[in-house]
Amino acid sequence: MNPQSARTLVISPNWIGDAVMAQPLLQLLKAAHPERPIDVLAPPAVSPVWRQMPEVAEVLETPFRHGSLQLKERWRYARLLRQRGYADAYILPNTIKYALIPWLAGIPRRVGYKGESRYGLINVMHHDDAPPRPMVPFYAALADAPGGPLRGSLPKPRMAAGAAQIAAACAKTGIDPARPLVVFAPGAEFGGAKRWPPAHFGQLAQRILERDPQAQVALLGSPKDGPACEEVIAAAGAPPGLASLAGKTTLSDAVALIARSAAVVSNDSGLLHVASALNRPVIAIYGPTDPDHAPPFSDMAASISLRLDCSPCRQRECPLGHQNCMHGIGAGQVWQTLEPMLNR
């Protein structure tokens, strides 16, 4: 292999937030080999966030079905990858099926965590000896030799959206680019326990629009978040300026609107980490998950958690049936943190 034409392959995690938190790894790899293009192999649902990262040369979308081994399909795809001349691969998912791809492609250096006992498939194997480690250093450690000391400081996740992308998203969704915009992300893929109550989001929207009637509050999410977003609107009294865009935007559109926003209020979700990587003012609301495990990294960011004795339980639904860790965070508490961000 000609070292001058060698490339690096990064195999993406399956979750948006994890992909964003893996981005500092790419910054470290690019600093070590600035001449080497970095390609990312990612699921279609995650690939838009990689396209917003300056270190990525090309995004390759996985053709595989979720949860299926599809050995023949992986072999065929590996043959295509073999032709691209990869010197190394960084396998971020911890499963055997993703480690198979660079091994079948004959990529000589294959870096990753032990995961599902992936001996042989991974030949530069890391071990996570101090779980649960925050996600950014967890991925970033793959840039260094296994077993070495952790870096004292790490770059922050970073993404960027261009002016044309932002203008197109505003035109598509009816967002007025001349008026202030606050984004809410009321959804969470992990489960209902991670969702701040829609009524609380609604009360917070009322505070924002009472303070500035010219403001716009956009509710972002997937089609599955549509009912929760409608509950937010109902709780707020359906005021002008509050709109649900759940299921009406692509992930690329959502990135652009977040980049345009004055602030973002979000559950612990993928869009929270997108907002953080875009360096927007962020309020992150945590209940059953640990705010220290995946915090926002914006220059202006606040993590709100009651840190009850029963949390973080890391359960999809509240095992005690009360969800006090989220219900107990009032809209007034969040407003006290948000209002200074809007006044800056």
TrEMBL record:
<dbReference type="InterPro" id="IPR002201">
    <property type="entry name" value="Glyco_trans_9"/>
</dbReference>
<dbReference type="GO" id="GO:0009244">
    <property type="term" value="P:lipopolysaccharide core region biosynthetic process"/>
</dbReference>
<protein>
    <recommendedName>
        <fullName>lipopolysaccharide heptosyltransferase II</fullName>
        <ecNumber>2.4.99.24</ecNumber>
    </recommendedName>
</protein>
<keyword id="KW-0808">Transferase</keyword>
<keyword id="KW-0328">Glycosyltransferase</keyword>
<dbReference type="GO" id="GO:0005829">
    <property type="term" value="C:cytosol"/>
</dbReference>
<dbReference type="GO" id="GO:0008713">
    <property type="term" value="F:ADP-heptose-lipopolysaccharide heptosyltransferase activity"/>
</dbReference>
<dbReference type="Pfam" id="PF01075">
    <property type="entry name" value="Glyco_transf_9"/>
</dbReference>
<dbReference type="InterPro" id="IPR011910">
    <property type="entry name" value="RfaF"/>
</dbReference>
<comment type="similarity">
    <text>Belongs to the glycosyltransferase 9 family.</text>
</comment>
<dbReference type="InterPro" id="IPR051199">
    <property type="entry name" value="LPS_LOS_Heptosyltrfase"/>
</dbReference>
